[in-house]
Structure formats: structure tokens, C-alpha cells
Amino acid sequence: MTELNENQRKAVEFSGKHLLLLAGAGTGKTKTIIARAVDLISKGVSPNKILILTFTKRSAQEIVTRIESSLGPNQARNLSGSTFHSWCNHLLLSHPNEFGLKDFTIIDEDDQVNIMKLICGKNNLQFENLRIKPQNLVDMYSFARNTKKNLTETIKIKLLADLKDGELEKALQEIKPNIEVILRSYEAKKKERNYLDYDDILQIVAKTLQKDENARKIIGSKYEHILVDEMQDTNPLQWDLLNPFQDYCHLFCVGDDAQSIYSFRGADFKNIHHFKENVKDSEVYKLEDNYRSTQEILDLSNWLLEKSPLKYDKKLKAVRGVGIIPQLVNVESEWEEGYFVADKILDNYHHKNKEFRHHLVLSRSQFYTRSLQAVFIEKKIPFVTYGGRGFMESAHLKDLFAALRVVNNKNDEIAWMRFLTLWQGIGDVRASKYLEQILGFNSMEECLSWLQSLTGASEQKLAQTIKSIFDNKQDLVQAVHVAYEELKERLSVKYVEDWENKRKPDFPVLEILASKYSNLSEFITECLLDNSPKINNSPTLQKSKIEQSENKDKVIISTIHSAKGLEADTCFVLNVSPMQYPLSYSIGNLDEVEEERRILYVALTRAKDELIVTRSKKSIYAENYQVENQTVESYFLNELPDNLVEQKSLGTKQWGIEKSDNQQNNAVDFGMDFS
Fold it and tell me: What's the per-residue H, E or C state across 544-589?
């Protein structure tokens, strides 16, 4: 392990019970996790006694693959790398007696919303009194379970945060009883149909391990070492999963409290700050040698953390040495910003031998980048976006999966409703009547016989689709193939606008994925789990799709929340303006302001050689914000030392883009795809 630095080697060879490794941005945390696993196996630990937990399938697969290349596939055979959700799903399937479950169906977020809509319809009085969308009820329900907060606390945080004490208590008394009726009905519906949502998968395992000593011994004995990546992104529910293993194996947790930016999903960076208190016989090591960025970029990033009232207690040092000082560019508008970024990229491409893929553009949202994307299209700059919907979240694939799901589980009423209403002439009312009949049958054979007896072109076609899949369900690839062949005519009509270029090419990818699974149930479950809450929004399946592209040389436009693991020679961070960093709604709340600081820190530390930050000229002097008649600092780049950045201002005439508001709006209304 001569390629490891002193602090990395110290962590890899740690011989104590439990270790938290605070690994700053670009300090080689993945390399250190891999080296830790290699070291353990080399010292005689069986690979099947090591569990590696990450937040995306891609990360897990990458780590396992690199371990295998270091040791050879035979030495690393049976090494397990998994997401939290996939790991818990495996435990539920392999230990049905311990967890008391069998024949369950995983449902994704869209399924949850559809169930919630049904529940709200049946509890119409309670729902009308709420004026809350079913999606918001699902989000609130998930937040409560991941953060382990009760219903009262959750309502206060998610729905009534802007109200003062007197108003808050009155509103709480009015809406809580109605919300409780709906959520209890939602849980009853899940139990009735043996549905498990993503949070159920974690919660059932966590609660069983906490309460059942026998189950804890059986599961705990499976592992000697658990290696956890991105520890700062774990939430209280995920910590409940890890906590029972303290007494049975060694925990090796790697993370960076300064990169904890997912509190809206329940992530709690205090899992890191309180690690030594919560984990007996534990130690904390740090990695501060940064291999990604130049010192000038790190000086700005370090300064941002040093301004925090929280103690992050780390200072990154650049192994690469010095480079270009970051730029702070003041712009008049989003359009000037877009043209500036585009021209800078083109100049690097034509005159500095930089490929498009060496450029990364980061923004709070993809919506904000609509003008930038329009400019890129105009300038013929190829780009790909991160932070939108993933591969398996696409509607056309969900339609096909609905057919696969009903063959796998005849009582999957959500899938039946989607599949039945796919066909022309079958609406919600007729589909509901059909579903009532379907749920009364004892087997798929009975169901098929009844479907084939129905008259009508759509009914005959849907029956033929189900029969084709059912007849081929033992051959997964063929089952997916015949499903597509039966459905392609209907899907091509439903998605006529972008069928040929955007949707149709996804189905061969789906057949390739099917070849990697042994049965229909496993295939459906794992693909649905790929949509589970994840930290980096570029999962394995989405990556497979991207890699199909002939032109891989593209600028990446990403939301900051989807930028974990990304880096580029030249990085642009858009609109770092007052009221944007931090967002105005967070002013006055220390926890929210500090999360905003960490979001900006993550963005700045993606840059390798060149960091360019833009901000709006109009907001430069709006650096203070009134909260309850008190002026508070509202801008992270306040009091920025002159030696840390080079400032410059642009003018719209320079770029030839003086446009009226109407002209600017028209430029993004030409049917362009800005997803």
C-alpha cells in the first residue's frame, strides 16, 4: 500500500473496534475504503464477512470492482457491496422467518402517491379540509419515519414552520386529526395488499434488529466488518440499522460533516458529530490532503467553513500545489451568464485543448439553467443534465413494468390500474370494475381466462400482452422482449412526440438489464429499488443509458445535490448571490443556514483547476436581510478577502443580448427539451 499517504494508511490498518474517518473533499475516501477491504481480506478476513454500504448502486459496484481488480475475482468472491435499501431487501428475502414477511411487493414513490390519491378520495371530507396535495402527504409521511419524528413534530416542521406559537397550535389542532385519518388508512391499504414502500424496507429491519435478540444474533453473526460510505448522509432510521451491529462487528464509517446537504431527506450530520458519544470503543481519524483541487480553490473553500459558527475542524491542503485564483463574475442577467459560460467553454475547447467533458456547471436547480441550456443549444455545445428523473422513473418504462408486475403479483392493484388505463377506451371507472373482478380470482390462470373472454379490441390486446409475458416468465429477457413487442404500438401512440429518438432506445437497455437477474420478482424489485431515495441522482441504470450515447464528450449541467462524486477541470457555480446562498427562507435558522453553507462548499470543491462563480449584479448590494427588525448577514461571500478571488463584471452590450422580457421568454418557448 505504498500509494497511500500516512493518514490513509493509518486508517486502513486501524486495529481497534470502530472508526469514524472524517474525509474532506477530494482526499481519497473511496480509495481508502477500497484499501481497507483489501487489507482485511489480505489478513484473512473472509470476503463474505465484509459488508460495504453506499448510497448508490453505482458506488457499490465501483468499489467492489476495484477491490476485485486489486485482489483478483477469486480472492474477493462473495464480497457484498450494496445500498441500504438493497441490503435490507436482501435480508427480508433471505430471512423471512426472522422478519415475518413473505410475498411482498415493493412500491416506488409514484405508487405511493397513487395509493394516497385513492385514500384521499375515500376520505374526502378529511382531505378537503387539508388542502394538501397527496404528494406532500407522502413526503411528510416519509420524512417522519426517516427522522423518527412523531406526527405533531412533523406537521410543525413540514407544514406550519412559518406560524408563530398561538397560530401554530390552532392550525395543528385543526389539521392533525384529518392527516392522522388519512395516514392510518394509507398504512392499512399497504398491509392489505402486502405492499412495502422504500421506508418500510429499512424500518422493518431496523425495528426487528432492535427488539428481537435472536434476530440480532443471527443477522449480526453474518458480518465481521461493515464499511459505510458517505456517513454524513445517513438519517436516524439508517443509524438504527447500523447501531445494533456495534456489539457484533467492526464499524468503519467514512464521511465529511462539511458535505452533509440532504436534511430535506432526513439526513443528520450529527451522526458524525456525535459518533464517539454514540459508539463505544470508537476513534476518529481525519484525511485533509486534497488530491483534486489547487490550493487557491481550497483557500476559498476553507475560508467558507472557517466563517461558520460550527466547528468542522478540518483544513484541506492541496497535494497538487498552487494554480489559478478563482473568479467571481458579476452578471446582468441569466442570459449574459449563459453566454459568458458558453463562450468560456468554447474558448477552452478550441484554444486550450479542453474537451467539453472537462467542464461542469452547477446550479441549485435545473429550472434555473433553462436559459443556459438554450444558449448551449444555440452554440451547439453538447451537454447532459444530472438531477432530473432517473432511467427507471420514465413513464414509458413504468408502463411496461406495470405489465410485468401484474404477472409477478396478481393482486398488485396499483400496477393493474396503470396497465388497464394504458389502453385506449379504458378509463378509471371501467378499470376499477375490471380490477374488482381480477382481485377475486385465485390464480393468474383464472384471471387470464376471464380477460380473454372480454370483448373489445383493447381488452383482447391487453389479455394477449399478459399471456405472452406469463408464458415466458421463466425466461426474463424473452419476457421483457415480448412485453415490448405487445406494447410498442400503444406506447408509440401515447408518446408520439418523442418516441423514436428518446423513448424507444430505452427498451434494448431494459433487455440487457433483465439478463443480469435470475427471476421476475428479483428483476422488478431491484429495478424499483434503483428509484429509491439516493444521494447522487445519476444511478446505475441512468448511467447505462448515458453510456449508450455515441458522443460522450459533453458538458455536465448538474444540480448541486446531484454533484456528489463529480469533478471537472473547469467548474462554474451559477448565481451565488445574496438571498440565494443562503436562500432567504433559511435566514434566522442556524441549522438551515449552515446546511446552505455546506451546499456551497460542496459546489466549490468540485473544481480541479479553474473555479468560476457567478452572481447577479442587481443583488450585490442586498447583502443584509431584515428578520424581525434585525439586520443579519445574508450572504456567504460577505467580507470576502480580495486575495481569494479575482472579481470582474460583464455588460450585456458586450454579448449582444439586449432583449426585452418578452424576447427572453420566447427563446425558451420553442419546444426545446430542458429536462
Answer: HHHCCCCCCCCEEEEEHHHCCCCCEEEEEECCCCCCECCEHHHCCC
Closest CA to 432 of 117, 181, 126: 117
Highest mean pLDDT among 59-63, 102-106, 132-136, 418-422: 418-422
Can you spell out the DSSP letters for 382-412?
-EEEESS--GGG-HHHHHHHHHHHHHH-TT-
Q: Model's pTM, two decimal places?
A: 0.75
Please tell me whether residue 633 adopts helix, strand or coil conformation: strand
Extract the C-alpha cell encoding 435. Answer: 380490477
Task: Give me the residues paired with residue 287 across strands.
Answer: 23
Position 174 confidence tier, pLDDT thresholds 50, 70, 90: confident
Cα–Cα distances (Å) from 296 to 25, 263, 523, 573, 605, in that order, read 15, 29, 48, 16, 11
* Exposed e or buried b per residue across 45-59, where buried means at least 16 C-beta atoms within 10 angstroms of its C-beta: eebebbbbbbbbbbb
Count Cβ neighbours within 10 Å for each residue of 414-438 and write b for 16 or more, e otherwise: bbbbbbbbbbeebeeebbeebeeeb
Which run of H or E residues covers position 22? strand 18-23
Q: What is the pLDDT of residues 346-391, one digit of tens each?
A: 999 999 999 999 999 999 887 788 788 878 878 888 888 887 555 6
Beta 630-633 vs 624-627: how paired, if at all?
A: antiparallel
Distance (Å, whole) CA 359 – CA 217: 50
Task: Kindly report the three-state secondary structure assignment for every residue of 205-274.
Answer: HHHHHHHCHHHHHHHHCCCCEEEECCHHHCCHHHHHHHHHHHHCCEEEEEECHHHCCCHHHCCCCHHHHC
Helix (H) / strand (E) element for 290: namely strand 289-290
3-state secondary structure of 454: coil
pLDDT digits (tens, 9 = 90+) for 137-154: 998 899 898 888 899 988
Report d(CA 104, CA 530) in Å as an integer. 17
Query: What is the DSSP-derived secondary structure letter of residue 81?
Result: E
147: left (phi over 0), alpha (psi -120 to 50) or beta: alpha
Give the tens place of pLDDT for each residue, 465-521.
Answer: 999 999 998 999 999 999 999 999 999 999 988 888 778 888 887 887 788 777 888
pLDDT tier at 657, thresholds 50, 70, 90: very low
Whether the per-residue pLDDT at 295 is higher than 90: the answer is yes
CB 466 within 8 A of CB 403: yes
What tens digit of pLDDT does each residue of 299-333 get?
Answer: 999 999 888 888 887 899 999 999 999 999 999 88
Count other C-beta atoms under 10 Å from residue 661's C-beta.
7
Query: Do 361 and 369 contact (CB within 8 A), yes or no?
Result: yes
124 by Cβ neighbours in 10 Å (0-12 / 13-18 / 19+) ranks as exposed
Amino acid at 135: Q
